[in-house]
UniProtKB/TrEMBL annotation:
Enzyme class: hydrolase
NCBIfam families from the UniProt entry: sigpep_I_arch
SUPFAM superfamilies with a match to the protein in the record: LexA/Signal peptidase (SSF51306)
Keyword Transmembrane helix: yes
Domain of life from the UniProt record: Archaea
CDD domains for the chain: S26_SPase_I
Taxonomic lineage from the root: Archaea, Methanobacteriati, Methanobacteriota, Stenosarchaea group, Halobacteria
Location in the cell: Endomembrane system
EC number per UniProt: 3.4.21.89
Entry protein name: Signal peptidase I
Pfam families with a match to the protein in the record: Peptidase_S24
Leader peptide range in chain numbering: none
Organism: Halobium salinum
GO molecular function terms listed in the Swiss-Prot or TrEMBL record: signal peptidase activity
Amino acid sequence: MRLSHRQVAGWIISISVLFGVLLAAPVNWMHPSVEVSGCSMYPALEPGEIVILEPTSTSDLSKGDIVAFRAIGTLVIHRVVEKRNRTVGTKGDLARKQFWFEQRITDSQILGRKLFSIPLPWNPDRQCRTSPPL
């Protein structure tokens, strides 16, 4: 039986995804993870990527860190651009300016700092490459 190129590609993708899940499973038990759903951090993070977080506080964060936090009733993953005594300010890489809800992030809002991310072997949302900055 001879397999077509499409079938071989499907097997390779399936095995790669399974391998990635098996590798990430132990990490997920020790660290929380979140899925990227928007384009605000493109090209650093793309929609569908899984970001593994490490627990942190505002005092441990530095400018340039990528942090996940809760604000305005939703989950946000943005880069730290300002550090103050007990708060940090963040901004999406594609954003022209900082939004009001990301100017003073406190410890109680922070879910964690990006430890590493698991990219998809394909990008289901190609609009990030053509979207204008926010």
